[in-house]
């Protein structure tokens, strides 16, 4: 809507000392009228307490005013032609007392009614009529040869930038005069009507005796008179641009203004879920994460809308919105209210609320290491599956090192991973939660061979067999279990009380990576010593027979290899004599030749024992 000059009219007949206060505009677009009537015009200057316009706006040529601190904008219209002489003064107090304050001014003109003098180019150097930048509290402003109906623009500045009062009065009562009787019509700013079927435009104007309403016709690009509308108000039900012309039929003066009225439907607001964080230790939450959900029911670009957030019902009622919703302190259980606003119309939706909560992420785990079973040539045995399906709303990204290898909940590896780390990022967009889990793949194989150590004897606690798996790939990460012959598997690799006879031991990897069995071995049962002293205890030495072997020959030698005796295993055994004489205490050796009944293999076994006297 174009800027319409607003004029206040009071006839002037001379210079009087009566004070009258009124307002001033800080910008040209806020310009205020004045006229010099029967009173001295007094008003507060512009200063840091009542204005944010510290310097004159760009565009106008301010002439002699090198600086324009805290400007006040006015205009006047000439009623009677002639010279206009004014005195401008600025003091600390409204009655021209207190400290004097430096005041400066510039005047442009003449302009005609309807001129757009705030367009940035009209207030040019050529239009300057008078200007003063003197360091004085009292200035003289002159408009020579002013003609009736001309308009002049005045800016008065506060060089001191100190709060005070400006007085303006005409000092040549026999000169020209300003017009104080112009109609003051203002229909206001353009109007957005939200969720209403009609709107009443109020054009009531003092001194007006005639009203004519018009509506802009888009087809003809002209205003059409609205028949029958002759009052100060107009009820409209359709969007459009409406114009009012008012007339003072006594003074034969007219004024016009227009206003645009647009009817809008308020935006809709979406139902939103609670805003969850992933940890009770969260300090900050971004409320704007709910923006898309809140505006979802509306058509159009997201840039057409904004959302205001409120920290509770009281703030909502008072219109105090959160100024940094993207950086809001998290408090579990807090209720946030939100309104969707159409940027074009300013119309608001009803309020929607949501709660701040901590999201309960389902249980999910990857072991620190994951076993991949391979053969002794490092070929993967079978496949390995990782992961768990957490249900709807979850998304997965599996990586082998830095390479994405899957987006399903459960991933299956048919070959050994390339990298030393497998990871999965699980995200839950509705809560904004995203967690990463990592496992280290480890290749493990069965043992290449199984070794063993035999200790003990067939007497006392019997034989002990310690099993040692060797040559397994990844054996530092492997776990093995063991068995003797076809017995039960056990985690302990030491077998105790093993009876004499033919045996095998096996080792297998507990994750199913394979089993290896040893060569069979034979444990011969024999005393490790004997005491041939005729006391009835250990008086003879012989093998302990075993049904699993068929003994062919059994020989006893001294330490020098001399054959002492050839024994029958079914006899009482050797009594420690040679040719009827006792042999000395010493270590003696034996050799047994036998056939393993399990395998049918001929074997020999040699060892030693002690004769103790």
TrEMBL record:
Signal peptide: 1-23
Keywords: Signal
Short name of any one Pfam family annotated for the protein: CHU_C
Record flagged with keyword Signal: yes
Name of the protein in question: T9SS type B sorting domain-containing protein
Species the sequence originates in: Christiangramia sabulilitoris
């Amino acid at each position: 809507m174009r800027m319409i000059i607003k004029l206040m009219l009071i006839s002037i007949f001379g210079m009087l000392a009566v004070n009258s206060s009124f307002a001033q505009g800080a910008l040209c677009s806020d310009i205020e009228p004045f006229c010099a009537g029967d009173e001295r015009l007094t008003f507060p200057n512009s200063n840091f307490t009542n204005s944010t316009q510290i310097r004159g706006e760009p565009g106008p040529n301010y002439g002699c005013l090198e600086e324009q601190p805290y400007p006040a904008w006015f205009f006047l219209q000439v009623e009677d032609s002639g010279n206009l002489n004014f005195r401008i003064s600025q003091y600390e107090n409204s009655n021209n007392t207190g400290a004097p304050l430096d005041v400066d001014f510039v005047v442009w003109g003449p302009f005609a009614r309807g001129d757009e003098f705030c367009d940035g180019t009209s207030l040019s150097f050529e239009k300057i009529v008078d200007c003063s930048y003197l360091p004085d509290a009292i200035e003289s402003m002159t408009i020579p040869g002013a003609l009736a109906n001309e308009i002049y623009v005045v800016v008065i500045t506060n060089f001191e930038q100190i709060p005070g009062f400006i007085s303006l009065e005409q000092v040549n009562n026999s000169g020209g005069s300003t017009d104080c009787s112009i109609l003051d019509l203002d229909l206001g700013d353009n109007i957005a009507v939200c969720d209403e079927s009609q709107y009443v435009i109020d054009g009531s104007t003092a001194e007006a005796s005639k009203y004519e309403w018009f509506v802009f016709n888009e087809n003809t690009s002209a205003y059409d008179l609205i028949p029958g509308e002759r009052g100060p108000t107009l009820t409209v039900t359709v969007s459009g641009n409406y114009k009012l012309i008012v007339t003072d039929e006594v003074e034969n003066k007219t004024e016009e203004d227009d206003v645009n009225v647009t009817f809008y439907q308020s935006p809709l607001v979406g139902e939103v879920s609670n805003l969850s964080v992933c940890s009770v230790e969260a300090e900050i939450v971004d409320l704007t994460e709910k923006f898309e959900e809140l505006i979802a029911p509306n058509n159009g670009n997201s840039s057409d809308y904004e959302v205001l957030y409120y920290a509770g019902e009281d703030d909502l009622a008072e219109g105090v919105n959160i100024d940094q919703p993207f950086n809001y302190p998290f408090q579990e259980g807090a209720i946030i209210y939100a309104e969707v606003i159409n940027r074009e119309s300013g119309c608001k939706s009803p309020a929607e609320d949501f709660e701040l909560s901590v999201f309960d992420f389902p249980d999910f785990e990857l072991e620190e290491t994951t076993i991949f079973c391979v053969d002794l040539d490092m070929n993967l045995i079978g496949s390995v599956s990782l992961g768990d399906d957490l249900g709807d709303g979850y998304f997965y990204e599996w990586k082998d090192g830095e390479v994405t290898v899957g987006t399903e909940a459960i991933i299956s590896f048919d070959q050994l991973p390339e990298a030393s780390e497998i990871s999965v990022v699980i995200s839950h967009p509705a809560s904004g939660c995203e967690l990463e889990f990592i496992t280290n793949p480890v290749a493990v194989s069965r043992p290449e061979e199984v070794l063993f150590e035999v200790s003990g004897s067939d007497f006392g606690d019997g034989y002990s067999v310690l099993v040692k798996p060797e040559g397994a790939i990844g054996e530092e990460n492997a776990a093995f279990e063991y068995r003797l012959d076809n017995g039960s598997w056990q985690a302990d690799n030491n077998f105790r009380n093993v009876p004499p006879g033919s045996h095998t031991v096996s080792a297998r990897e507990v994750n199913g990576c394979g089993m290896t069995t040893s060569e069979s071995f034979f444990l011969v049962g024999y005393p490790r010593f004997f005491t041939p002293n005729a006391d009835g205890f250990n008086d003879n030495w012989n093998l302990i027979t075993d049904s699993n072997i068929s003994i062919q020959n059994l020989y006893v030698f001294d330490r020098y290899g001399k054959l002492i005796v050839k024994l029958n295993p079914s006899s009482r055994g050797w009594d420690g004599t040679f040719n009827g004489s006792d042999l000395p205490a010493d270590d003696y050796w034996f050799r047994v030749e036998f056939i393993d009944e399990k395998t049918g293999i001929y074997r020999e076994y040699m060892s030693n024992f002690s004769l103790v006297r």
